Amino acid sequence: MSILTCLENEFADEIINKCEENKCKLMLNEFENKIILKGEKLFNNIKICDCLIFISHNDQILIPLVELKSKNINSSSIIEKFNNSITEAENIITKCNINNNSCKYYIILLVKSWRSSSEFRTITSQKIKFKGIHYNIIPKKCGSSFSDIPK
Length: 151
Hints:
Order of helices and strands: HEEEEHEEHEHEE
Largest sheet: 7 strands, mixed
Number of domains: 1
Structural class: alpha+beta
Strand order of the largest sheet: 1-4-5-6-7-9-8
Radius of gyration: 15 Å
Low-confidence stretches: none
């Protein structure tokens, strides 16, 4: 069973059409084979990203974990959300019996604007460590396209 079929079967109530909140969104138009899960619908008892996206692309599963911020940016809360999100995304991959070697994670923070350059530096200097791999937080403006992020 493919990852997308598994997600449709197991998480139908958590699927959303767009990764968007408060006029902040990630553009995904160029990717047809995708499922977007709403983080808060998946797990209402932990801090988690707004969108967990699973894209089947060129024999890989691309997994952007996206936090949308239109206002306040709290670095410790954002780090906690990303840490929880990557763990839960891995649990979903395991539940769907997908080889996690074909998966590639992207930690994306979309913001309308930064209040200060120190706020930007604080966030972007953080790394998300998971299974011995350090992931950079990719900061982008609301409305950015996932296709603009190097794969």
